[in-house]
Amino acid sequence: MNLVFLGAPGAGKGTQATRICGKYNIPHISTGDILRANIKAGTPLGVEAKAYIDKGLLVPDEVVIGLVEQRLAEEDCKKGYLLDGFPRTLEQAEALSKFSKVETAVNIQVDADMVVERIAGRRMCKCGESYHISWYNSDKCQKCGSALYQRDDDKEETVKARLEVYEKQTAPLIEYYAKKGVLKNVDGMQSMDKVFEDVVRILDDND
Ligand code: AP5
Ligand code: MG
Q: pTM of this prediction?
């Protein structure tokens, strides 16, 4: 099961990816999470990536392509994987096609206003859980008890830049995967449970 999740910032890629990977027991590979872990650890990659992420811009293709190629070569990806936030440019998609075959690209569709509301209210935990202030009113993680925080790139100005970058550089991938015959659209405006059900139905139909 080789999956790609497409969708604007805040569409719910990470939320659904966690659930889907739990259900199908495949690794969740989020380039955003990998880059943020590197920023936190102060690695050279993290220092380079931070300059782009803080502005809402994409990290250069050659950097992320190398990261993903290495990650997909690991043993746990032999049974499949879910890529969350990669590819994000046509160049990345072309590079990926040279080292792995994407079987399904799930595109989570949401309206632009919803994206802003979701991102503005998102709170993260260092364990990877993510919450929203509309349904969670504690500042501690339900799973591990750590303090929740807001992502640095979730400030309004940066969000605007991320949305513009998405429209220009990432949205063309919808057509790219449609042409390859592997695109599946999901209505991301529904509840999390309903979105999950729809994705599961798509994946089970493909078997
Ligand atoms: P990345 O971390 O990938 O961020 P993103 O694409 O902007 O997406 P988000 O993580 O913000 O949103 P999401 O779709 O995961 O939504 P979530 O599930 O959290 O990338 C960050 C940066 O890293 C990029 O800007 C770039 O600089 C760099 N980068 C990463 N990958 C790269 C690449 N391949 N190439 C170059 N640069 C790269 O949900 C959002 C909120 O909504 C949460 O609060 C959640 O609880 C809530 N929510 C979710 N679903 C629902 C629902 N159905 N109903 C109600 N609330 C919901
Ligand atoms: Mg995410």
A: 0.95
